[in-house]
Amino acid sequence: MVARLVLAGVLIVAGLLKIDTPALSVEAVRAYELLPVSLTPVVGYGLPVLEIVVGVFLAAGLLTRTAGVAGALLMFVFVVGIISAWARGLRIDCGCFGTGGVLEAWEEPNYLGTILRDIGLVALGVWVAWFPPGKFALDSALGLTSSRDKDDDEDLDKDEETV
Question: Can you tell me where the transmembrane regions are (predicted)?
Fold first, then answer.
């Protein structure tokens, strides 16, 4: 549950910080120089919405495994984008939490820290996708878990009892 809520919180905060300034989000996407100019507005406007939606699903524990995969994939794409920018010598802010784009001459990028953080978030998404959602997820309350999830939950409960 902790992995799910941490990833959810990061995605929701990141999306909310971008959604009210879509022009800055588009500028951040454009700074990566990876997409055709015609696609940067689509991604710049759509990314905050996607982050919020995936984050809300994770927070609620609804379609938890699918949301975990989506969160992990988002973070993986961010890692690839940041590595690409670093390898090509671009001096940009990732745009992860609102502002982004080309850095001023006196500003230094923090590529390594951002990459390590996002790899950790990929790991959280994989964890959420791999393990059953648990009893504090809407999936469980609505009966949306598979029989495999229920068996895994019982195994985890037995493990906790023996500790």
Answer: 41-60, 67-87
Same domain as 43, residue 13 = yes
- pLDDT per position as a tens digit, 116-149: 999 999 999 999 999 888 888 888 878 877 655 5
Contact by Cβ (8 Å): 8, 59: yes
DSSP sequence for 73-105: HHHHHHHHHHHHHHHTT--EE--TTS--EEPPT
Consecutive H or E run containing 127: helix 111-130
Coil/strand/helix, residue 5: helix
Around Cβ 100, how many Cβ atoms within 10 Å? Answer: 22
Which domain range does residue 144 map to? Answer: 133-163
Q: How many independent structural domains does the chain possess?
A: 2
How far, in Å, CA of 147 to CA of 159, rounded? 18
Give 123's contacts (C-beta < 8 A, 6+ positions apart): none
Statement: the pTM of the whole predicted model exceeds 0.90: no
Which of 40, 129, 114 lies closest to 83, judged by CA? 114
